[in-house]
Every structure is written in structure tokens, then in C-alpha cells.
Write a structure and sequence with these properties.
heterodimer; A: about 180 residues; alpha/beta; Pyruvate-ferredoxin Oxidoreductase, domain 3; six-stranded mixed β-sheet; 6 strands; B: about 350 residues; Rossmann fold; 2 domains; seven-stranded mixed β-sheet; five-stranded mixed β-sheet; 14 strands; about 20% strand
């Protein structure tokens, strides 16, 4: 098993956190993994990306040219990156901030209005969790509850108050993805 | 099974150093390695260590000279432009036969460049160390675990050869998170080396730490002694890994993050019917020339992959000695190559 997921968005949307959370979940599921971020030097408003490779053996390259999975948090991320997703890949797009229309018919597309859903469950800042929930549900890379539990290790204690909101967003994203593909 | 923790390459370098016996850190902030001094500032003082944020890289390397003179196990870390600034002090440390450990988390250059990953400090690391005939013993990890292990091992190696040791990594490895097994922290030896300076009540002959030798005959003798240590290092410290199965058509040579990329690339190439051997030197100086020479005689061509416009390739060419063509593939300025691109190049060469 080897799964690659590339995540991209605007600085502040929690792209790196979503990646770290899935990485921690993979670790706790006993898998091998490699996560690396690339972002611009701006404190806010720059572009942020990360790549996560999860495997049940040696990871090999942490760098992936044509990833099997993508989580794209806004329209710029879709415009910049969707073109290089692997055929038959899984793309989860935040349709609150991007059009759900894409020019790839060889991929599995999950459209999640992440920012709106997150606002409904408590905070629009949990949009990253809504999209991550959708990705985890469809890819099956780890169980969603492992991701939920990993929040306790990834978030600093002072932010543990937000964990229920994050879990609600993860679950809502997962549920919508399931309904969409049914 | 020992507990695996998800940590960054920067954290691995810092904790690896502490576990290996480092108790003195001097540095100046620069991205993408700021997590190292941050970690040291938090973790060294509680165990009786010393963390100093210097006023510049020039100050940091000279503080390192002072600490190393007393036999302290000390380090500094930086990224490309900062390592450039340290060259004079490094040369002085080599001349004074002082051990220390440096980590260079390489970023795009030349000049101030950017904060993206690069491998364009290969010459700086393996040929650099300022003026004179000295060099840094240089090791290039390719994973978070290896950064942790090598940075710790670098301290006794530096002491053994009385020479600076450079850990050469890059912005991908610095920021990357991977599972890492941590060991118990080890204290540096209590007994100071016989050459160290410091108050002494035993009446032994006084030690002098110095790189100024006005008599050329003496200066030459110092150089020859340093070179003999490099020759010993070439006997004892050569490290590399090999990947790939079957009788290879192409030998791929890469180090650090590029070698990780090539590891997947040669799998893609094998699926396309081209068998490769990947040699990943871990020690860059001393350089594992023999294993490259060995495989070069058995393949049609050699491909060198690096994140620069061709630095590491010079050592590979010296090893290959013209027995087969050596080709180059790389990007620079902070751009990455992908396994897919490398695989396409391999298939096109075969």
C-alpha cells in the first residue's frame, strides 16, 4: 500500500495542520510516512502546500510529481495543481472557495463546501477538517476515528477546546463525501 | 518495539546532537533551520548545557572555536548564506585541529536566494571550509531518522579526527516529518582531550590552540597531519547505501533528498523495463569512489541527479574515471525534481 496526498491552499487555511494530522494518524495506525511542507515566506496570504506519502513499507520519495490524492482548499489551488493529479486519482475540492467544474474526467472528484460546512458546525476555520474527513472517508487510508484521536497529539493543549468542532467538521465532511459517491 | 515519534528533520538534528553528547550551541537564526536553535534554547539549559544566540554567524563560529578549544562538545547550525559567513572561522578551526559539528540546511542560492530546498552547497560543504588545505568531513542524511543518527554520531567522529564535521541536508529534510526512534541522551566524556586548553592544576605542559604557524616547515607538518587524518577517515568512515535489483543497465548516483526521489524513480524505471542500481553516498567527504567505480564498469551509463546545476557530479566523474558516459539531471534555485521526471530520463537513456 502506498498512498500519496498533496494538499494546497492559502496560508492560514490549515493546509499544513491537515497534513500533520493525517501524518500523526498514519503513525498511530502503525504505517510508514513522510510529510513535507512547501510554503512562501509571507506570514499570511501566501501559498501553502504539503505532500504526504503513507505506505505499509519503505516510503521512498517524499516528493511526488503526480499524486494519487489532492485536497485543494481554494480556486487558486485548483488552477495551480489539479492538472498534475494522477489519472484515477481522488481530488477533494473546497467548493465554498472554488468552482466544482473541473476539466478532468479521468479522476474521482469530491466537491465539499468545506468553509460553509465548517461554519455550520462551529467555525469556518475548520474547513480543512471537513475536506480531510472527506478524503479519509473515500481513500480509506486510515480510519476516521484514528484521525479524530490524533487531534489530541497534534493540537497544543491550549487549543484542545476546538477539538469537538474539528471532529464535527471531519465527520460532516466524511458523511457528505459518502453521500456524494453513493 | 521502541516508540516512534513524528518529528521534523530540524528537531531530529537538534535532539540527535543532544543525544550524541552536544552540550554547547552557538547560532544565528536563518530559515529553514530555525527550529534547531529554538529546540536547543529550550532543551540545553535544563541539562546544564549552554545555548547562545550570537549576534551573527561570524560570531557564532568563533564562539564555537572558543568552546571547542576547551574540549567542549559544541555545534552550530545554519543555512547556506550563514554557512558562507562561517568559512573563515571553519578554516581556523581546521588549522587549530579543533572538532565541532555543523548542520547546513541548504536553501536556494546563490546570494540571499530563497527558503526553498536545494543541494547547491555541495562544493561549499565538501571543498569549502574556507582557505587552506582543510576540508570538513561531510555526511548527507536522507531521512529524519538518519539526520538524528548522523548528527549524534558526528560528535565522536569530530573528536576522533580533530576536525569539523558537516551534516549536509536541505529545506525538504529540515521541514519534513517522519517517524523517528529516539535513544537515551548520552553525556559527553568527563575527561577532556589532552590538547584542550583550560585551567590546569596538575602542572602538565601548557596547551596552545593556534592556527598561526609562521615557519612553513611547521605549517606543512600540520597540514600533513591533517591529511593523514583524512586518509584514516577514508579507511573508517565511508558510508553509502545501494538500491535496485537485477543486472543494471544504468547506475544512478544521488545523495540526500535526491536519492530518496531516485529510490522511487528506479522502481518506475524497473516497471518500464530498465533495471538500475542506485548508489547513495552518505559520506560525501570521504567519498565512496570505489563502489561507484565498481558499478560503473558493469553499466552502460551513469546518471547523476542533484538539486543544483552539477556539483556532486564532479566527484562521481572522478570515481567513474571515464569508463562510461556520465549524464546529469537536476533543477536548481529551490526547484525539485520528481520521481516521474527522473524515471523518464532513465528510460530515455537506456
Amino acid at each position: 500500500m502506498r498512498q500519496e496526498v498533496f494538499m494546497a491552499g492559502m496560508g492560514g487555511q490549515g493546509v499544513l495542520l491537515a497534513g500533520q494530522l493525517l501524518a500523526q494518524a498514519a503513525l498511530e495506525a502503525g504505517l510508514e510516512l513522510s510529510w513535507f511542507p512547501l510554503y512562501s515566506p509571507e506570514v499570511r496570504g501566501g501559498r501553502a502546500t504539503c505532500t504526504l506519502v503513507i505506505a505499509d513499507g519503505e516510503v521512498g520519495s517524499p516528493v511526488v510529481g503526480r499524486p494519487q490524492g489532492m485536497i485543494l482548499m481554494d480556486g487558486i489551488a485548483v488552477a495551480n495543481h489539479l492538472g498534475r493529479i494522477h489519472s484515477n486519482g481522488l481530488a477533494v475540492i473546497n467548493t465554498s472557495l472554488a468552482s466544482g467544474e473541473v476539466n478532468r474526467d479521468d479522476i474521482k472528484l469530491v466537491a465539499i463546501a468545506g468553509t460553509d460546512i465548517a461554519a455550520q458546525v462551529g467555525s469556518e476555520r475548520a474547513a480543512n477538517m471537513a475536506l480531510l474527513g472527506a478524503y479519509v472517508q473515500v481513500s480509506g487510508v486510515v480510519e476516521l476515528r484514528v484521525v479524530e484521536q490524533a487531534l489530541y497529539r497534534v493540537l497544543p493543549k491550549r487549543h484542545h477546546d476546538y477539538i469537538p468542532t474539528n471532529i464535527a467538521a471531519l465527520q460532516r465532511g466524511a458523511q457528505l463525501a459518502e453521500e456524494q459517491l453513493r | 518495539m521502541p516508540k516512534r515519534q513524528l518529528i521534523t528533520g530540524n528537531e531530529a538534528a537538534a535532539e540527535g546532537a543532544i543525544a550524541g553528547g552536544c552540550r554547547y550551541f552557538f547560532g544565528y537564526p536563518i530559515t529553514p533551520q530555525n527550529k534547531i536553535p529554538e529546540y536547543m534554547s529550550e532543551h540545553l539549559p535544563p541539562i546544564g548545557g549552554v545555548y547562545v544566540q550570537a549576534e551573527s554567524e561570524v560570531a557564532a563560529i568563533n564562539m564555537l572555536y572558543g568552546a571547542a578549544s576547551t574540549g567542549a562538545w559544541a555545534m552550530t547550525t545554519s543555512s547556506s548564506p550563514g554557512i558562507s559567513l562561517m568559512q573563515e572561522g571553519l578554516s581556523y578551526m581546521i588549522g587549530a585541529e579543533l572538532p565541532c559539528v555543523l548542520v547546513d540546511m541548504v536553501r536556494g542560492g546563490p546570494g540571499l536566494g530563497n527558503i526553498a530546498p536545494a543541494q547547491s552547497d555541495y562544493w561549499l560543504a565538501t571543498r569549502g571550509a574556507g582557505h587552506g588545505d582543510g576540508r570538513c568531513l561531510t555526511f548527507a542524511p536522507a531521512s529524519v531518522q538518519e539526520i538524528y543518527d548522523l548528527t549524534g554520531e558526528a560528535f565522536p567522529i569530530a573528536q576522533k579526527y580533530r576536525n569539523p564535521v558537516m551534516i549536509l541536508a536541505d529545506a525538504v529534510l529540515a521541514g519534513m516529518r517522519e517517524p523517528c526512534v529516539l535513544r537515551e541522551r548520552r553525556d559527553p566524556p568527563e575527561e577532556k582531550p589532552p590538547w584542550a586548553v583550560g585551567g590546569d592544576q596538575t602542572g602538565r605542559q601548557r596547551n596552545i590552540v593556534n592556527s598561526l604557524w609562521t615557519d612553513p616547515l611547521v605549517m606543512e607538518e600540520v597540514n600533513l597531519r591533517i591529511q593523514r587524518r583524512y586518509q584514516q577517515a577514508a579507511q573508517n568512515e565511508l558510508r553509502w547505501t545501494e538500491h535496485g535489483a537485477g543486472k543494471p543497465e544504468i547506475l544512478v548516483c544521488a545523495y540526500g533528498v535526491s536519492a530518496r526521489i531516485c529510490q522511487t524513480a528506479i522502481e518506475h524505471a524497473a516497471e518500464a523495463g530498465v533495471a538500475c542500481r542506485l548508489i547513495r553516498p552518505i559520506s560525501l567527504f570521504p567519498f565512496p569512489s570505489q563502489i561507484i567505480a565498481h558499478w560503473a564498469q558493469k553499466v552502460k551509463k551513469v546518471l547523476v541527479v542533484e538539486l543544483s546545476l552539477g556539483q556532486f557530479i564532479e566527484d562521481v566523474r572522478l570515481a567513474v574515471e571515464g569508463v562510461c558516459p556520465v549524464e546529469f539531471f537536476g533543477r536548481t534555485g529551490g526547484m525539485l525534481v520528481t520521481p516521474e521526471e527522473v524515471a523518464e530520463r532513465i528510460v530515455a537513456m537506456a
